[in-house]
Specification:
Layout (H helix, E strand, L loop, with lengths): L4 E6 L4 H12 L2 E7 L9 E5 L5 H8 L4 E4 L9 H22 L3 E5 L11 H14 L4 E5 L3 E3 L7 H7 L3 E4 L4 E2 L1 E3 H10 L10 E3 L9 E2 H12 L4 E4 L2 H15 L7 H7 L3 E2 L18 H14 L5
Parallel strand pairs: 1-2, 1-4, 2-3, 4-5, 5-6, 6-11, 7-10, 8-13, 9-14
Antiparallel strand pairs: 9-12
Helix pairs in contact: 1-6, 2-3, 3-4, 7-10, 8-9
Length: 307
């Protein structure tokens, strides 16, 4: 009888983690997943109450696991200390738990922001988290996703809501790469077994579009997905930074455009390095971006999110 493969996972209840849990079940993995709140029972998931600052819970999810997939982190925070706690100290705690449990394989989900750590507190914290992984002596692979979209995403929801009105308020002119959440989930699951070619590698996956998307081109693609013609308005950098402070004042902890994120978004090139794309034999994107955006818009509408 073949022993069931076990994956320890952080961030399983988030946007990316939820897609990964579905893919893990399809691939025959059993997930031992960290959670802060009660979750529905599942034959494929063992939920462990805990957090990144709770070493005992981290050791519990790692015990007997074949691999660790570390997705959890802080995307939006009011201070450098909060980013440090979530993205640096939290990563250090997961690495320590992996070593204590004798788990050698470590998949770390970082961010393209780590390429430009001086631009934002978020990017600086993600880079420091990466350094902990690369010096851990574990069998590691780091994945730096670009902009992630798909059904259930809250980060790009405001862009879709504005596009529904025929408007796109955009950063200064620049380029971005994007990826559908299900394509990213497939890559993360594909990396779980030991791959000699993937060991000690940093991958930057995307939708496969050469050179990425211009901000206005991506906004028009969202409009196409919604059946709308979108007028793109680019905000100058100073106005974008001012809007970041304004959103923080209006929505507090629920703000999506914070001053830190505004500094990040003002950068003109957030495209992946083609040389860091995963090898085609390992993974390739399957979801065309226009079609993915259309399906995302349909999901938002069906679930009452397009207010």
């Amino acid at each position: 009888m073949t022993q069931q493969r076990v994956i320890a996972i952080t961030g399983a209840t988030g946007f990316v983690g939820t897609a990964v849990i579905r893919r893990l079940a399809e691939a025959g993995w059993h997930a031992r997943a960290l959670t802060r709140r009660e979750q529905p029972e599942s034959d494929r998931v063992t939920w462990v109450n805990g957090s990144l600052d709770d070493p005992a819970s981290l050791i519990e999810i790692c015990d007997g696991a074949d691999c660790i997939l570390h997705i959890a982190g802080i995307v939006n925070a009011p201070s450098a200390a909060d980013f440090e706690a979530g993205n640096v100290t939290g990563t250090a705690n997961v690495i320590a738990a992996a070593k204590a449990a004798g788990v050698g394989r470590f998949i770390h989900v970082s961010s393209l922001s780590a390429k430009q750590p001086k631009l934002s507190l978020y990017g600086a914290s993600k880079m420091r988290g990466e350094r902990l992984v690369t010096t851990s002596l574990l069998d590691w692979t780091i994945v730096r996703p670009p902009g992630i979209y798909g059904p259930g995403d809250t980060e790009m929801l405001d862009v879709f809501r504005l596009a529904a009105k025929g408007v796109a308020l955009l950063p200064p002119r620049g380029k971005i790469s994007v990826i559908h959440v299900d394509d990213l989930a497939r890559l993360l699951v594909a990396l779980l077994p030991v791959h000699e070619d993937a060991a000690t590698q940093i991958y930057e996956p995307d939708d496969g579009r050469p050179g990425g998307w211009t901000h206005s081109g991506f906004a028009r693609a969202i409009g196409w997905g919604m059946g709308k013609r979108v007028s793109a308005l680019h905000a100058p950098r100073p106005l974008l930074l001012l809007a970041g402070y304004g959103d923080r004042l209006l929505r507090g902890s629920k703000a999506k455009l914070t001053p830190d994120r505004a500094r990040y978004l003002a950068h003109r090139d957030w495209t992946v390095d083609p040389l860091r794309r995963p090898p085609p034999a390992l993974w390739q994107p399957l979801i065309g971006t226009r079609e993915g955006l259309r399906d995302t818009a349909r999901w938002y509408r069906a679930n009452g999110w397009m207010k």
